[in-house]
Design goal:
Residues 630-853, 1257-1489 form the ABC transporter domain. Residues 314-596, 936-1218 form the ABC transmembrane type-1 domain. This protein has 1506 residues and is an alpha/beta fold. Among the domains are: 32-42 and 77-205 and 242-247, no CATH class; 270-433 and 1074-1181, ABC transporter transmembrane region fold; 619-858, P-loop containing nucleotide triphosphate hydrolases (Rossmann fold, 3-Layer(aba) Sandwich), CATH 3.40.50.300; 1236-1332 and 1455-1498, 3-Layer(aba) Sandwich (Rossmann fold). Helix 11 (277-295) crosses helix 12.
Length: 1506
């Protein structure tokens, strides 16, 4: 019925093929194209010479080089690239000259029937290659670094011409090869080498100077050149020859070392200069600026900048990818010819068979070389882009305005740096699929058309339909990806904030509440992940089933059209369908990567366009041109520019050089904002700010960097011992240094966590002093230090070493005001009063309220003192003796005492990493997490069934299809195709089952691992957080967890799938010719050897890469926290340089991991080609009849993919092992030693405990770690219930440690603490901490609202909350905001002043109403008036309760019932204030006298004491 139509189709197809062959054969197409090309080339060359002669063009840099060469005697060391180009050019020239000679003697038969065309073509070729050879020789004389662009273009065109014609004629020829064929083959191989040289472009010359040093001849700026040389000299890749780069043998020395012993960080070589972060960042910055100038802001400018940055390297990668895609289809193209040869072996020459085998092998080798180069090139480009993006995200973070900073938390920005950048660089790897996809599809369709005629159209339509299905799926996937990233941002933001404030959570017993908050955010992320993976599983099912669907549709169409399905045609089609799997499989990954990178790129583009600090906010003048250091005229400033009420308004300020200006005022009056206006940190709405001179800034909340104390003080400046000693002495740090383990080289933990508040404050004051600035801005510098230290700082630092400097200092301590040349009184964002101390007292419009509150406090001290004994005025000698006495009591709270100096104790340990092979227990832990590993055998069974059904369907088609068009099929085509379709459908269903099981198992495992790690971290003791940088934990929670969520299950699955596939392939090949096993076994042994040789090096490099990623994030988090200080000290460039160094430290192992993978893949591919070539030669050599040609063709079909499969197996195993490091790292944090249980069921206290509030310490000793000395020593005392106990002592005497012991933040190493007859070590931590109240030294607010911060457990009514707010003096401030209780609190409470934050913390304890309240410097950051009000409120609200107060303000503790004086971690005194004051020699008595003397000394008059 369909026969006529089918016959017509077959005839039409045959005619098309014949016409194409005639066009190439009978007409002299090659010769004519060749002549045109040579003439064009020669014309261009002559024009170029003429233009050069007349001086129109000039070789870039050549004259400069020649001038340099005249100055010194230099010889050129030749390179492999140059030698191969010269050899190949001369070889091709010789070949054409010899052919020309034979043509003269009529000794050669040409394919072209026109002798004129043949002769003209050879003459033009000879002339062209003569020119080329001469130019190549001249290159050496002129010492050119790169081959001229015209020469490289010529080599490229020659290869295309040779490959297009010669390769086809040689492989299609059935007769024995002649001289012309061998000449063409020689030319083709030489052109291939020249193509490689032209792509690289470099001659590879080195200059050999007379001194004997060898260095590359590079043109351009010499300074830049020196930088390049320093990188290149130690970079094996930078110094590698062309051959070493092709074979990746430049990395051999690293493998040799890694095989002998585990690699260390210093063993990894440097990267090439073009891969260095500095080079990449600078290049990308240029592109950003150029694009922004041309196109303006918007997301498009970011995309265009990236495109401009990557296009050159991406274009080279694209050339390799296109050649790779083209050569991959030569195998399927030749299969039909090979089956025909085997079927008609008697009538054909064996040479033809061997030539076909050589064609197969050559195509596979070219495919391997180009594939390895484009994959490596893509990874290298990804590395460069990652370095550029990370550095720009970092640089942007240093200049974000306050509004932008509030809208982007550090957790979000860390996500940009870790996750989003990774997704963009991953897309660079996938982008080459865009060029390869059309080539692969149309190459496949061409081969199918050649063998199946118009049936190929059915294949094309089906392929396009399958690909079209991806569009709606991709749009849906993009939405899911966007949801995943938003959910991940929310989780990381919360995690980052919790880690920073973990101490507060533990003190307040809120850890469970915030643990549940993270779990809720993770549940949201989990739901998004499950939707994405479920869709991905369905997409995979469609695309894995696609080749089977396409083949069924194509074969059915052929049957209906009457196209004969011979064995050769079917096998060629099956091989082509197999090749089509690559673009179809790759499409969802490409689209997924495209979607993910688009979402990530939009996020980064949006971030890079956020507003920055105003560059013109401050005018900087020279000191010589003005006597004013700071001047503000008619200034208005606001943290929220859109707000109707500015933060500061009507600011007029003139500060002369050398003046001391004090700024005071109530909490939230704008004192810190005034300093920010001088720094240019706050948005300027109007007015002028002028500053003349270098600035130094000390923020209210100490910002301390991880590192040594000396590093923090020097802050990038050179160490000058005399200046340094002077600074340290002025900042009262000498005694602390003596008592630190390593003096000023003692290492500080993250955010100075192992330092007391006073020590951190003095270290950052020393940092400012050492900079020798002209203007000093000190924000409440005395709040965290005791009375004696405060006086010492004021006298020796502010009035001593800084006496000639301009100093603006914010303070709540009135005793430091009289010495100021100018006092500014702030109120509601305005300067209400300005003048000297005496002038302001006389004005009676506000200042006297602050002074009055201080007077009251001082009066209370004096009255108690006088009632105890007669107060005597202290002389200067008394003052000196008191100071001397106080000095003897100094110690360091958190550090090692003098007797332990010799013992090194590093607080922040280097990140723990495993060594050697990843343990089996890690794999087992991962595989057996979900249902004890029950899903694993089902997944393997599903894949095995898929593979068996695939082989069965292909075997069925090869066995049943007739060997020739004339043969009769064994069964009807309808039945053949029905069985084939059923087998194909079965295999697709197996894929669906497998993908769903992998998605379920992988995500469930990831969720279990996350839950375990999260609970382990939350239950870790504070010592873990003290010694572990936040970035280290965040790295595991973001990057490593992302690997488990989306990659790990797929990578492990692919290990099993690829092994099953290769076993199936070997089975089919051994069925065809069992002799293949003879060669396969030793090759398999070689593969295993290579894999084992590779693994130790790659594993350690991967671990290093993972470890080196955390410092980038940690450094970034620290820099964001101290961005204001960095800008104030003008240290941006230094911090950016540190960031670039850290990026390079990560890039080094990462680059060598990528190189190592390519090294392995290249060698494994070559070994698999060896097996394939052996099997082909075996099939050609075996006598006819020994083997069925159709089955032999099936073996070749499977053999074509052997190299890919073999490389895939090893690649997947290595990749899975590298990814398994993330599992290993998460497991490490799932086994952190836990602190005591939250609840102990058998030992739960009564509901009303503690009802009395008595606290008994018995022989208490506390140390921070086993190798650290005791910080508290033999503390034995009792705090009676319902009493007020004051705890005093010099900075670092152990006061805060006592409180930490009370809350069991640190466990006693000896002794007990008993509260109301309950030993606190016997009850659960939650039962203990939830019954105690505390206002900590560092006030912490969480991202959210005021309501959430006051009542995070949602236990109280609005009425109760408002009552607490009014009591803690925040009622008016909060009512003034539109949102009231829902007023926004940003990360760290940055939009509230430090004093307001402390008042919110007070509100918490007023709500909690505990019977025991601890105040740890609770009012250090509020003014005296507010402090007085707060003390009254506490006395009223906690009248019959136990209140333990730590304070540096003596008046805060003078009215206590009992005072505990700590010194050197021991109890110095413990009695009532009155009794202690009766003893002249008591420590407390001396503290009181010191405070009185200080106030009296600085008042300068009796006004203060009246």
């Amino acid at each position: 019925m369909f026969k006529p139509f089918g016959f017509a189709a077959e005839t039409g197809s045959h005619l098309l093929t014949t016409q194409w062959l005639q066009l190439g054969n009978s007409l002299c197409l090659k010769e004519r194209i060749s002549i045109a090309m040579q003439v064009t080339f020669l014309a261009f060359f002559l024009i170029h010479l003429a233009l050069k002669w007349f001086g129109v063009v000039r070789n870039r840099g050549s004259n400069d080089v020649e001038e340099d060469l005249k100055k010194q005697s230099i010889t050129v060391k030749q390179s492999f690239s140059y030698n191969i180009s010269l050899l190949c050019s001369v070889s091709i020239l010789g070949t054409h000259c010899f052919i020309l000679l034979l043509l003269f003697r009529d000794s050669v038969v040409s394919r072209c029937d026109s002798s004129v065309s043949v002769f003209s073509a050879e003459v033009s070729q000879s002339f062209s290659w003569l020119f080329v050879s001469v130019v190549v020789v001249k290159i050496r004389e002129r010492r050119l670094v790169k081959f001229p662009w015209m020469l490289r273009s010529w080599w490229l065109c020659s290869f295309i011409l040779s490959f297009s014609f010669d390769a086809h004629f040689i492989t299609a020829k059935h007769e024995p090869l002649e001289f012309q064929d061998y000449a063409d083959l020689t030319g083709l191989l030489a052109s291939l080498f020249l193509l490689a040289v032209s792509i690289r472009g470099k001659t590879g010359f080195h200059l050999l100077e007379s001194s004997g040093n060898t260095e590359p001849l590079l043109l351009g700026d010499q300074t830049e050149q020196n930088k390049k040389d320093s990188y290149s000299s130690s970079s094996p890749y930078g110094n590698a020859t062309l051959f070493q780069r092709i074979t990746f043998s430049w990395i051999n020395p690293l493998f040799s070392l890694g095989y002998k012993r585990p690699l260390e960080k210093d063993d990894v070589p440097d990267i090439d200069v073009k891969d260095s972060a500095r080079f990449c960042s600078h290049a990308f910055d240029q592109k950003l600026k150029t694009t922004k100038e041309k196109e303006g802001p918007g997301n498009a400018f970011f995309y265009n900048s990236v495109l401009r940055y990557v296009w050159r390297k991406a274009a080279i990668n694209a050339v390799f990818a296109v050649v790779n895609a083209s050569t991959a289809y030569i195998g399927p193209y030749l299969i039909n010819d090979f089956v025909e040869f085997l079927s008609e072996k008697q009538s054909q020459s064996l040479n033809h068979g061997y030539l076909l085998a050589l064609g197969f092998l050559t195509a596979k080798i070219v495919e391997t070389v180009t594939q390895r180069q484009w994959i490596f090139g893509a990874r290298q480009l990804g590395l460069r882009l990652r370095a550029a993006l990370i550095s720009h995200i970092y640089q942007k973070g240093l200049v974000l305005s306050s509004q932008s900073r509030q809208s982007h938390t550090s957790g979000e920005i860390i996500n940009y740096m870790s996750v989003d950048v990774q997704r963009i660089t991953d897309f660079i790897w996938y982008v080459n699929n865009i060029w390869m996809l059309p080539i692969q599809i149309f190459s496949a369709i061409y081969i199918l058309q050649k063998h199946l005629g118009l049936g190929a159209l059915a294949a094309l339509v089906t392929t396009l339909m399958v690909m079209a299905c991806n569009y709606p799926l991709t749009r849906l996937q993009r939405n899911y990806q966007s949801d995943i990233m938003n959910a991940k941002d929310d989780r990381m933001k919360a995690t980052s904030e919790i880690l920073k404030n973990m101490k507060i959570l533990k003190l307040q017993a809120w850890d469970n509440q915030f643990l549940n908050k993270v779990k809720t955010l993770r549940k949201k992320e989990y739901d998004c992940l499950w939707k994405s993976l479920r869709l991905q599983a369905f997409t995979t099912f469609i695309l894995w089933g696609a080749p089977s669907l396409i083949s069924v549709v194509t074969f059915v169409t052929c049957m209906l059209m009457g196209v004969k399905l011979t064995a050769g045609a079917v096998l060629s089609a099956l091989a082509t369908f197999q090749m089509l799997q690559s673009p179809i499989f790759g499409l969802p990954d490409l689209l997924s990567a495209l979607v993910q990178s688009k979402v990530s790129a939009d996020r980064i583009a949006s971030y890079l366009q956020q507003s920055e600090t105003q560059k013109d906010a401050v005018e900087y003048c020279s000191k010589d041109h003005t006597e004013l250091s700071v001047e503000i005229e008619n200034g208005a400033f606001s943290w929220e520019p859109e707000s109707s009420r500015p933060t500061l308004d009507d600011i007029e300020l003139k500060v002369k050089s050398g003046m001391k200006v004090a700024v005071c005022g109530a909490v939230g009056s704008g004192k810190s904002s005034l300093l920010s206006s001088i720094l240019g940190e706050i948005q300027k709405l109007k007015g002028t700010v002028r500053v003349s001179g270098k600035q130094a800034y000390v923020p209210q909340s100490p910002w301390i960097l991880s590192g040594t104390i000396r590093d923090n003080i020097l802050f990038g400046s050179m160490y000058e011992s005399e200046k340094y000693e002077r600074t340290v002495k002025a900042c009262a740090l000498i005694k602390d240094f003596e008592l630190f383990s390593n003096g000023d080289l003692t290492e500080i933990g993250e955010r100075g966590i192992n330092m007391s508040g006073g020590q951190k404050q003095r270290i950052q004051i020393a940092r400012a002093v050492y900079q020798n600035a002209d203007i000093y801005l000190l924000d409440d510098p005395f709040s965290a230090v005791d009375a004696h230290t405060g006086r010492e700082l004021f006298e020796d630092c502010l009035m001593g070493i800084l006496k000639d400097k301009t100093v603006l200092y914010v303070t709540h301590q009135v005793e430091f005001l009289p010495a100021a040349d100018l006092i500014l009184v702030m109120q509601n964002g305005r300067v209400m009063q300005a003048g000297k101390f005496e002038e302001l007292l006389k004005q009676n419009i506000g200042f006297e309220v602050l002074v009055g509150a201080h007077n009251e406090a001082l009066d209370s001290i004096l009255s108690i003192e006088k009632s105890s004994r007669n107060f005597k005025e202290g002389s200067k000698d008394d003052t000196a003796s008191i100071a001397e006495s106080l000095q003897t009591h100094c110690d360091s709270e958190h550090n090692i005492s003098t007797e332990n100096k010799k013992k090194e104790a590093k607080l922040v340990q280097d990140e723990e990493t495993e060594k050697g092979v990843i343990g089996k227990e890690v794999y087992l832990a991962y595989l057996t997490t979900v249902k004890g590993g029950l899903l694993v055998p089902f997944i393997i069974l599903a894949q095995s069934c898929f593979q068996m059904l695939q082989i069965a369907s292909n075997y069925w088609m090869a066995w049943t299809a007739p060997p020739t068009a004339e043969s009769i099929p064994k069964l009807g085509m309808g039945r053949i195709l029905l069985v084939y379709a059923l087998l194909a459908a079965g295999s697709s269903l197996c894929v669906l089952a497998r993908t769903i099981l992998v998605a379920i198992g992988g995500l469930s495992t990831a969720e279990t691992f996350f839950s375990r790690m999260l609970c382990s971290i939350f239950r870790a003791p504070m010592s873990f957080f003290d010694s572990t940088p936040t970035g280290r934990i965040l790295n595991r929670a973001s990057t490593d967890q992302s690997v488990l969520d989306l990659e790990m299950a797929v990578k492990l699955g692919w290990c099993a799938f690829s092994i099953i596939q290769i076993v199936g392939t070997i089975f089919v090949m051994s069925q065809v010719a069992w002799q293949v096993c003879v060669i396969f076994i030793p090759v398999a042994v070689a593969c295993v050897f290579y894999q084992r040789y590779y693994t130790p090096t790659a594993r350690e490099l991967s671990r290093m890469s993972g470890v080196e990623r955390a410092p980038i994030l940690h450094h970034f988090a620290e820099s964001l926290a101290g961005a204001t200080t960095i800008r104030a000290f003008d240290q941006r460039d230094r911090f950016i340089s540190s960031n670039l160094v850290l990026i390079d430290s990560h890039s080094r192992p990462w680059f060598h991991v990528a190189s190592a993978m390519e090294w392995l893949s290249f060698r494994l591919n070559l070994l698999s080609h060896f097996v394939f070539a052996f099997s082909l030669v075996l099939l050609v050599t075996l006598p006819e009849g020994v083997i069925n040609p159709s089955i032999a063709g099936l073996g070749v079909t499977y053999g074509l993919s052997l190299n890919v499969l073999q490389a895939t197996v090893i690649w997947n195993i290595c990749n899975a092992e590298n990814k398994m490091i993330s599992v290993e790292r998460i497991l490490q944090y799932s086994k952190i030693p836990s602190e005591a249980p939250l609840v102990i069921d058998g030992h739960r206290p009564l509901d009303n405990w503690p009802n009395v509030g008595s606290i008994v310490f018995r022989d208490l000793q506390v140390r921070y770690a086993e190798h650290f000395p005791a910080v508290l020593k033999n503390i034995t005392c009792e705090f009676p219930g319902g009493k007020k106990i004051g705890v005093v002592g010099r900075t670092g005497s152990g006061k805060s440690t006592l409180i930490q012991a009370l809350f069991r933040i640190v466990e006693p190493s000896q002794g007990t603490i008993v509260i109301d007859n309950v030993d606190i070590t016997k009850i659960g931590l939650h039962d203990l901490r939830s019954r105690l109240g505390i206002i900590p030294q560092d006030p912490a607010l969480f991202d959210g609202t005021i309501r959430l911060n006051l009542d995070p457990l949602a236990q109280y009514t609005d009425h109760e909350i408002w009552e607490a707010i009014d009591k803690c003096q925040l009622g008016d401030v909060i009512r003034a905001k539109d949102e009231r209780l829902d007023a926004t609190v940003v990360e760290n409470g940055e939009n509230w002043s430090v004093g307001q934050r402390q008042l919110v913390c007070l509100g918490r304890v007023l709500l909690k109403k505990s019977n025991i309240l601890v105040l740890d410097e609770a009012t250090a950051s509020v003014d005296s008036a507010t402090d007085g009000v707060i003390q009254k409120i506490i006395n009223q609200e906690f009248k019959d309760r136990t209140v333990v107060t730590i304070a540096h303000r003596i008046h805060t503790v003078i009215e206590s019932d009992l005072v505990l004086v700590l010194s050197d971690g021991r109890i110095a005194e413990f009695d009532s204030p009155a009794k202690l004051l009766q003893r002249e020699d008591s420590f407390f008595s001396k503290l009181i006298k010191e405070y009185s003397l200080r106030s009296n000394h600085f008042a300068g008059s009796n006004d203060l004491l009246s």
